[in-house]
Amino acid sequence: MTGKRILIADDEAVVLTSLRKSLEHLGYLVVGEIEDGMSVIYMTRQLRPDVILVDKDMPRMDGIAVARVLNEEQLAPVILIANSTDRELVMRAREAGILGCLVKPIHESTLMPIIEVACARWAEQHTRKQELHQLREKLETRKVIERAKGYLMDSQGLREAEAFRKIQQLAMNSRKSMKEVAQAIIIAQQIAP
User: Fold this and answer.
1) 73-90 confidence digits (pLDDT tens)
2) Which residues of the chain form CATH 1.10.10.10?
3) Which DSSP state fits 48?
4) Does residue 177 register a pLDDT over 60?
5) 178: nearest Cα among 147, 134, 135
6) Neighbour tally for 39: CB within 10 Å
7) Which residue of 28, 73, 103, 190 has the fewest CB atoms within a 10 Å radius of its CB?
């Protein structure tokens, strides 16, 4: 739980001070205290914190807009700080990818649970995105190899297993992936007269 690096952003110095003290008391490391929205994005890119606590009403860029940018760039989970909440704010926060919300005044006892849950959800989302990317890559590779096999079967009269083995052998000999070899075969087939 402890040791997470946290960036906090609020345009009220008294809130920043109170929040920093509470977080440090809980064992978190505050890596930055920021007073405007644009700087939150810049500092997040530089510092790579584990979690960001950002006030909804920030100068230069509000907390929800900041969260949207950080979520699109997949930099860190964002917890929104607000003076009050309503259904519209919750919907906007959810659409921006915000993983938690704190309502002022913030009590120390609410910080640890929301931070830990937000970080856990962020890690789960990141893992699912990676798995999805890997599955898409495997599917794309399989499609390219199947297409190249089809070309080899048609043009060279090979059976499916032989065409696959040929692609495999070319990949090993050239120290390239089977996908790269299959793509080269497809390109060669397209430019062949």
Assistant:
1) 999 999 999 988 889 988
2) 132-191
3) -
4) yes
5) 147
6) 18
7) 190
Dihedral sign, Cα of residue 94, residue 92, residue 86, residue 42 = positive
SS3 126: helix
Residue 28 exposed, middle or buried by CB count within 10 Å (0-12, 13-18, 19+): buried
CATH 3.40.50.2300 residue ranges for the chain: 5-106
The sign of the torsion formed by the CA atoms of 63, 69, 75, 76 equals: positive
Q: Which among 189, 52, 36, 70 is positioned nearest to 118, based on CA atoms?
A: 52
Asked if 36 and 59 count as a contact pair (C-beta separation under 8 A), the reply is yes
Beta strands in 73-128 (DSSP E): 78-82, 100-103
- State the pTM of this model: 0.73
Find the mean pLDDT for residues 90-102.
92
| Token representation of residue 4 | 């997470």
- Alpha-carbon distance of 168 to 171, in angstroms, equals 5
Strand order in the sheet with 5-9: 29-34, 5-9, 51-55, 78-82, 100-103
CATH topology of domain 5-106: Rossmann fold (3.40.50)
CB 88 within 8 A of CB 34: no
**In a 10 Å sphere around its CB, with 0-12 CB exposed, 13-18 middle and 19+ buried, how is residue 119 labelled?**
buried
Helix (H) or strand (E) holding 51: strand 51-55
